[in-house]
Amino acid sequence: KAKPTSTEIDKFISSFPEDVQEILNKIRATIRESAPEAEETINYGIPTFTLKGNLVHFSAFKTHIGFYPTPSGIEKFKAELSKYEGAKGSVKFPLDKPIPYALIGKIVKFRVKENLERAAAKGKKNKAIKS
User: What is the pTM of this model?
Assistant: First the structure.
């Protein structure tokens, strides 16, 4: 089965009110800028960026944007994210407050580095097993 293209994300974003679409498009652009090699898809029914595995997911809800950079992304930026509600692998950015796009970019760059390092380590381990 072919991977869904970014037209699925376009469709997803277009299902929200215009003001929210603007925010979602800006988050999408921020992620693309921070992870230019990442692929876009829909996972778990929401926009997802992948690069050697899932990088980040995002979505919109009635009162907030959900951003899902995995538990490691939340842990690494715990101090900066402390003013937002969140859980182990997610954070809620309220729609009535400015969205921290620069912070989203920093988290995405961290996740890219993490995924690439993990993939490289896996590659080395596999080479060791084969030799």
Answer: 0.90
